[in-house]
Design goal:
With 101 residues, this protein is mainly alpha-helical. Helix content is 75%, strand content 6%. It has one domain. It has a two-stranded antiparallel sheet with strand order 1-2. The longest helix has 30 residues. Keywords: Membrane, Transmembrane, Transmembrane helix. Pfam families: CCB3_YggT.
Length: 101
């Protein structure tokens, strides 16, 4: 049973790192002076970071609307998914590995 927990934990960690990469790329593109990265980079980034993380982010965007602050809309769906993944990692560790955190 511990092996199932270990595999789930590895999958959640991989998804966590993909989500962090997505957040970093979105932040760089939004704060960059010239948001025109090379085409090969965007194809690679979309394939690696955006394709696996898009379905849960889109689902959460339907449930959680953007937080409006004046003319700016802050997307909190990615942040919510970030915390959900952290919670799931802790839950998998507690359920499958017991007190061996």
């Amino acid at each position: 049973m511990i092996y199932v927990g270990f595999i789930l934990l590895i999958l959640l960690r991989i998804f966590f790192y993909l989500l962090v990469g997505r957040i970093l790329i979105e932040m760089i593109l939004s704060f960059s002076r010239s948001p025109q990265p090379p085409r090969w980079f965007m194809v690679l980034a979309e394939t690696v970071f955006f394709v696996p993380t898009d379905p849960p982010v889109k689902l959460l965007r339907k449930i959680i609307p953007p937080l409006r602050m004046g003319n700016i809309g802050l997307d909190v769906a990615v942040l919510a998914l970030f915390f959900i993944i952290i919670f799931l990692q802790l839950l998998v560790q507690l359920v499958f590995m017991g007190a061996n955190l």
